[in-house]
# Entry
Amino acid sequence: MRVTSSFAASVVAFLVAGCAIPMAAPVAPSSGPRTATPYASSEARIFDLINAERARRGLRALVYNAQLDQMAKIQATNMAQFRKMAHVLPEAQLPTLRDRARYVGYNYGQIAENVALGYPTAEAVVEGWMNSSGHRHNILDAGEVETGIGIARSPNGGIYYAQVFGRRLSSL
# Structure
């Protein structure tokens, strides 16, 4: 899903494209290490693969951001809990990307999200995103400068992925 100030679109399919929303006031980035999770190595691999795709096209690497990482982990966990791949989960406490941004205090000028379900490896999910125009756009958007990644498994074994991209209002 990509959202701008007065436009909201939602496409739910095997892959669902990202979100873009304007907002207010800057927050300092985190340069700290990722939180240890059962999927930390896969999350790190996705981070590296996404930056490799950007480098191949002459774009600067995305920087890890702890707030975006928290947002991605919230969304992956919620999708796994509700066994539903979507950008908006009305049944969740933080149903929208905007809600998650407010919750973690990420004041953005631009924000987007990629989600996926069922890919067995980091390589497979990145390949799937790169083969989807909406997801590829989010990955290769020069306006996005930071990212965070979350992976969660549902009780029935489905693997849910979320990647959040952002640019704080202060960096526009």
